Amino acid sequence: MAPARRSTKWVAPVLAASGAIALGVALWRWTSQKDRPDTSARSKRKGANPTLSLSFPVDPAWTQQLASMPAIHEMIQALTRDYLVHVLLDAPDGHAPSSVPCDRVLLYSTAAGRAMLARALQCQCHVEFVFVDAQGHAAWDANDDIPAYLTRLDQLAQAVDALLVIVVRGPPAPHTVSWATLAQAWASHPVSQRATTQWIDLSMSAWSHVTERLQLQRQAWT
Predict the structure, then answer these.
(1) Is the pTM of this model over 0.90?
(2) What domains lie within the chain, and their CATH numbers?
(3) What confidence category does residue 44 fall into, taking pLDDT thresholds of 50, 70 and 90?
(4) Residues 6+ apart with CB under 8 A from 186
């Protein structure tokens, strides 16, 4: 059964208020595909498909390189056939990479700001990407800690229909934590026991496997 569709009309005011409360910690911006007309086919897609938020890790250097990563662009483009896609990116300078093939791009500057955006959006499906390098280090916000991160995920899990933490292979990041420690903390935290949450390790797989997994999630709602 398809999840109940949530209204997004109030999202922008909520984000603005949240940003004020956070004293500018959470940097956000809507980036719409204004150069693409809102055709009737696209309008029908918006009305029929569930909402999906793709949250990428705290690593502004990676965000700047996103434009030259065709595999990720292909994944996002493929998912727009099944979802209304929002992409959350770390961009403390306020500049989003051009031509991200999604419905909206939202920018944040801290891990706490990212969680605030995700809760305000309340997409039906939220994907939290964890980037792990070849040495087993996960990209991380230097000002964050694992217990606080998992608590925020637990709060988010109560606001969405499905929360997927997907571990993927990523480049070395300026700040990291042990992926094994993070995985163990997840397993022992109440968030991992919720029926709506999953931890999915695709660190040895291609981005196409992420696409397939999220397409399966969409089919489960048909």
Answers:
(1) no
(2) 28-220 (3.40.50.2300)
(3) low
(4) 150, 165, 192, 199
